[in-house]
Amino acid sequence: MYIPRSLSPVLHHAVRQFPAILVTGPRQSGKTTFLRHEIKRDVDYISFDDPLERNFALQDPNGFLDRFKNDHVILDEIQYVPEILPYLKIRIDRRRKQRGKWLLTGSQQFAMMHNVSESLAGRIAILEILPFNFLETKKNVRLESAVWNGFYPEPSLDFAKRDLWIRSYIQTYIERDVRLLLNVKDLRSFETFLALFAARHGQTLNTAAISRDAGISLPTVKSWVSILEASYLCYLLPPYFNNYGKRLTKSPKAFFLDPAIVCDITRQPDENSALAGSMGGALFEGLIVSEAVKIFASRGRKPDIFFWRSHDGLEVDLIIQVGKKLHPVEIKLTATPSSGHLEPLNRFRELAGKDSATGLLVCGVDKITSMPFGNIAIPWNYFSTWLAEHI
């Protein structure tokens, strides 16, 4: 069963405007399925996961590309054959008016993005497709289930696959991607790092503490964090910089993009225990931050999102910039919002002045509820709808 993706209008617009399009994102987020369902006619398809195709492209790039006569060509997992990109550039430059011919997918941002930028600058649109967002699944799913099963297509569509799929995904990532990218030989150290990173889900990133606790060097920690980020496994939420309240922190907050990954790495026993336990608040906050990232990506945009912390420790979980306006967002795992939840929102709005907009309290209420001082409380599963309507 194919679930239509929010990125579809952006893809079709890009196909009409650019000679090449790169759809990137984490493994198993649906990149290939997306392209093959959206581009149905006059299309050739090749996967560089196939070693025969990979070797053909490396040994005879022009002969490889000469095979494709249809209007569209999908080259899947382009990161395995970046050497083909200069030959694509030559063909694109020969036929600059041709649009949407070359459709590429890739799972890692490292050298691939460098090669794409170097070879196809000005000729390619780069889109990100992430795991499902709430608008795509359209399920009346319980919060516990959303956190436990996550939003990768396989486990979110078939809950029975959840345990084996998630564990296999993590193991495959450790054994395949990390080894390929950085030639990590001590996988046990990386697993320790991964567990420590997941345990700090939703916290300010402290690489020195992880280095100390994992017994690995600080440069190694920073390098491995960059791997998680570039593989779309984590998102580093930056602080908002405009010197409001003379903030002291400059480090980002670190989140895994999918809550099921966190639940598995931190050994949560079941969906109810995950939210009821000590990490419940962080898992809920990460769910909403991840939704913000995914909604921006579905519009073909980089996320204009931040967090804010005052000099006296008051924090707003999420700042969403829409044009010149800043929406402060508090994320609370409660069904009973109170005026105390609004204090960070009110402080930020006061300091931001004319730049501030409506403050949001995302929580477990059943409907949109007006709150004092021009703030509103909204249901957690309505947040994506609200954001999609405002950006």
Describe this structure in words.
With 391 residues, the protein is of the alpha/beta class. It folds into 3 domains: 8-128, P-loop containing nucleotide triphosphate hydrolases (Rossmann fold, 3-Layer(aba) Sandwich), CATH 3.40.50.300; 136-283, Arc Repressor Mutant, subunit A (Orthogonal Bundle), CATH 1.10.10; 305-390, Trna Endonuclease, Chain: A, domain 1 (3-Layer(aba) Sandwich), CATH 3.40.1350. It is 45% helix and 17% strand. It contains 18 helices and 14 strands. A 6-stranded mixed beta sheet has the order 9-10-11-12-14-13, sandwiched between helices. Strand 11 (325-331), helix 17 (343-352) and strand 12 (360-363) form a beta-alpha-beta unit. Helix 5 (85-94) packs parallel to helix 6 and helix 10 crosses helix 14 (259-265). The protein is globular, with a radius of gyration of 22 Å. The two termini are 29 Å apart. The relative contact order is 0.10. Residues 244-248 have low confidence and may be disordered.
Attribute tags:
14 strands, Arc Repressor Mutant, subunit A, 5-stranded parallel sheet, alpha/beta, 45% helix, 391 residues, Trna Endonuclease, Chain: A, domain 1
